[in-house]
Amino acid sequence: MKKIIDFICLLVPFLNQYPFWVKTMVGIWVIFSAVVLLTIIFTYPNPPSPAQKNTGVAQTAQEKNTTEAEKRVVINRLKITYPLPDNIVGTTDMIRGYTPYAHKNHYLVVMPLETGDEWVQEGPLKIYEGAWAGRVKFGTAATLNEAKFAIRVMATSAALQEGPLTVKPKGAVFSDPVIVKLKK
């Protein structure tokens, strides 16, 4: 350590007038900074190569807005941030999240785990700088307390009506589901 401090004092001559403990602290700071800088340089992730991005899947004219590669990327980014999995929700609750698809229509889709029927909520959601929020109605007055529901957000070019989702629109992208429990 003394050799390092002497070397630093040689590079920064004004440190010679300070006590040894100040020189030691400057030496530790320089070493720490070098370690952090080298860590950042050598652990920074490399972007994927064009060969890794190419899926090799031919695309139809109807699916040109949403490619398979885009779906795989978006499933990690199109997401619900609130509520968290296993949270308790009321009969009507606010749902929030993020999307990279500001140019598409977004709808909340709720599915009671008991029945497996998917229900599109009123929409499309309003998006501001990639963030969205919307209200969800969980069941009816007859729905049992502590019933579980799966919530997903769907980005699509189609315009949908509130009600049962019988046919999924072509090119629709869904977030991962968030499972919540109803508490009346």
Give me the Rg, rounded. Answer: 27 Å
Determine the number of helices (DSSP H or I, runs of at least 4 residues).
Answer: 4
User: CATH class of the largest domain, anyone?
Assistant: Mainly Beta
CATH topology of the largest domain: Immunoglobulin-like
Distance between the termini: 66 Å
- Estimate nothing, just give the exact number of structural domains: 2
CATH superfamily of the largest domain: Immunoglobulins
Mean pLDDT: 81
Corresponding CATH architecture of the largest domain? Sandwich
Percentage of residues in strands: 25-35%
Order of helices and strands: HHHHEEEEEEEEEEE
Can you tell me about this structure?
With 184 residues, the protein is of the alpha+beta class. The protein has two domains: 2-43; 66-182, Sandwich (Immunoglobulin-like). Helix content is 24%, strand content 28%. It contains four helices and eleven strands, in the order H-H-H-H-E-E-E-E-E-E-E-E-E-E-E. The strands form two sheets. Strands 2, 4, 5, 8, 9, 10 and 11 form a seven-stranded mixed β-sheet that branches. A four-stranded antiparallel β-sheet has the order 1-3-7-6, with no helix packed on it. Strand 6 (126-128) and strand 7 form a beta hairpin. Helix 1 crosses helix 2. The model has no long low-confidence stretch (mean pLDDT 81).
